[in-house]
Amino acid sequence: MLSGEVMNVTFDEKQPIFQQVADIIEDDILNGTYREDEQILSVAQFSQLFQINPATVVKGIGLLVNEEILYKKRGLGMYVSSDAKQKIKNQRRNRFYKELLSNLICEADKLELATEEIIEMIKQLRKE
């Protein structure tokens, strides 16, 4: 991002903004915007980019530090951990299984959908 550039991000009111900041950084790690052992934007840059309070950015980055996805180099900034991508994938797969699939199965049971029907629906969605 260029200096002075503002990113038009719409934050979801159902989730704290700091969590969404952490998710955006995780997405950038997964899609290769940030690579392992590479420096991420500074708090001030994120704050300016998203037009949010720096304390909110600090809290989001803090989550990723606690999860060992980011680490701090004193005086230099925040960097992506060497195994960050795999950690994020593992966390998200776990969340996908526990939350999304669990809810999907619960709703499918209410609708009396067979496993094969669910699989066909998923296959169809993947084609679209």
Automatic annotation (TrEMBL):
Highest taxon above the source species: Bacteria
SUPFAM superfamilies linked to this entry: Winged helix' DNA-binding domain
Residue ranges annotated for the HTH gntR-type domain, each copy included: 15-83
A molecular-function term among this protein's GO annotations: DNA binding
Keywords, ordered alphabetically: DNA-binding, Transcription, Transcription regulation
Keyword field contains DNA-binding: yes
Name this protein carries in UniProt: GntR family transcriptional regulator
